[in-house]
Amino acid sequence: MYLRGKENILYQNEKDAKEQVKLFVKNQKVPYKSMAKSMPLWANIVAHCGNMGGITIFQTQLPIYMDSILGVKIKKDCKNK
Q1: How many Cβ atoms from other residues are within 10 Å of residue 24's Cβ?
Q2: In Å, what is the CA distance from 73 to each residue of 5, 41, 56, 62, 81?
């Protein structure tokens, strides 16, 4: 079917492109097995866990360090301001 006008031709081209993308995406499967065996993925997971562990320790132990080593009383300083 031939459509006249610039807008109709563009619409038909968009429609064809969307159909091709749907066919391409529909036939692909997610490679979960190869992802699970991927060293870069595991390196990223280990780095993320280490980072989160470090941040958690830093946030929970910083007030104790400031109080015992530096002598900064956090509750007292917060009340004055």
Answers
A1: 9
A2: 76, 43, 21, 12, 13
The residue written with tokens 């499967």 in the block is 29
Query: To which H or E segment does residue 18 belong?
Result: helix 6-26
The per-residue pLDDT for range 51-64, each reduced to its tens digit, is: 999 999 999 999 88
Find how far residue 58's CA is from the centre of its chain: 23
Model pTM score = 0.51
Taking alpha carbons only, the member of 58, 80, 54 closest to residue 66 is: 58
